[in-house]
Structures are given as C-alpha cells and as structure tokens.
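Now for our specimen.

. . .
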Amino acid sequence: MAYLKKLGLACLFCFGLILVLTFVLTLFNYINFINNGLFVFFMIFNLILSVFVGSFVLGKRALKKGWLEGIKFGALFLVIVALIDYLGFDYTFNVKFIVFSIIILVSSLFGGMVGISFRKEEK
C-alpha cells in the first residue's frame, strides 16, 4: 500500500506538470508567441521533463535502486500512453513510437537515479 502511495504521488506530479505546461504552451501558441515547429518541440520536451520529474519524485522516496524505480515508472507511463493512443485514437504501431518509448524510458531512468541520489539518508 505504501508503494502505491509513492507511485500515485509520482503520477500526480507527472500528469499535473503535463497539464500545466501544455496549458502554457497552448496559450503561447494561441497568441502566436511561438510557431508550430517550436510548439511540437516543446510538447515533446514537456513529456520528457514531466516523466523525469515523476521518476525523480518516485526515486527520492525509494529505498534503493532508483534506476529500477525509474524504469518501472517509465514503463507504466508508456503503457498508459499506448492504451490511450491505440484504444482511444486508433493509431497504428510505427517506428516513431519505438523511438519515443526509448527516449521516455531513458528520461525516466535518469530521473530515478537522480532522485535516489537526492534522498536524505536515514540515521
């Protein structure tokens, strides 16, 4: 049960950051502050940053092996994204999703490793 609380908090940070940054980027795109090509770049960066932060939060609360916590969080995020894409929007499997998955997993891995290094040691 304690692990689910940690995972829920990490998901809350991740999806909350996605919502806030998406709103800000959409607002900037609406008032023509950024063009469409830059908007797509920032949206991908938004996802990478959000997964990193969520994995960082989970790694900071982990007892050991932050890289494993990061990979588990990244895999959970990818399962959620794949379910939404394939069941909700009827996308087909392609090479872009594989590259996207690798980038998300690496970002999540680094987030877990950095998070566990920031953890306060129990004395």
In short: The longest helix spans residues 2-30. The chain has a mean pLDDT of 86. The radius of gyration is 16 Å. Residues 4 and 47 are 22 Å apart (CA to CA).
